[in-house]
Design goal:
Radius of gyration: 15 Å
Strand content: 25-35%
Largest sheet: 5 strands, parallel
Strand order of the largest sheet: 2-1-3-4-5
Number of strands: 7
Distance between the termini: 20 Å
Helix content: 25-40%
Length: 168
């Protein structure tokens, strides 16, 4: 299986996001990337859109439903939201949507900061393996992987995708 090139996906994602926001009459959304890959994708998307706005970052580690099973990842950093959440239109960006649990955790954390007017979900890849009813509004590509396969995003520049096979 060949993976798409993120640099080729970003222009189409930017165009699709612009159409989505225009259709919903959203003119000045706040952008939030989920650490780490979502932040990289968000930075690249803001560059593609030529938007000079502060980027919020979320580290959802404490909000994950598997936190007690997996423990704390050593790379945990605080979330940074340099703008209000209450009543704002947000664009939430992640690299890979798989089970939907990271997005659920991100929404839980965002609502602890306030009630946004709307949340638009953007993902570079949708692996079509959801356990929760979460769908991106804008997606770069949809892939179906084997049960033992995962996709890893490296970055921040250049963004590259690598197919990994888990040990049985």
């Amino acid at each position: 299986m060949s993976l798409p090139n993120p640099a080729e996906l970003l222009p189409q994602m930017a165009a699709a996001l612009t159409r989505h926001l225009n259709k919903r009459a959203i003119s000045e959304p706040n952008f939030i990337g989920i650490r780490t890959g979502g932040v990289w994708v968000a930075q690249a998307l803001l560059t593609e859109l030529d938007i000079q706005a502060p980027l919020g970052t979320l580290d959802v580690s404490f909000y994950r439903d598997d936190f007690t099973q997996n423990g704390l990842h050593p790379q945990v950093k605080p979330s940074d939201l340099p703008f209000e959440i209450e009543g704002q239109h947000l664009v939430l960006i992640d690299d890979v949507l798989m089970s939907g649990r990271t997005i659920r955790a991100a929404l839980n954390e965002l609502f602890d900061y306030g009630r946004p007017a709307s949340v638009t979900l953007v993902t570079l890849l949708d692996l079509d393996a959801r356990e929760l009813p979460v769908r991106p509004d804008v997606v770069g590509a949809t892939l179906s992987l084997e049960a033992n396969q995962r996709v890893k995003l490296s970055g921040p520049t250049p963004l590259t995708l690598e197919l990994q096979t888990l040990a049985n």
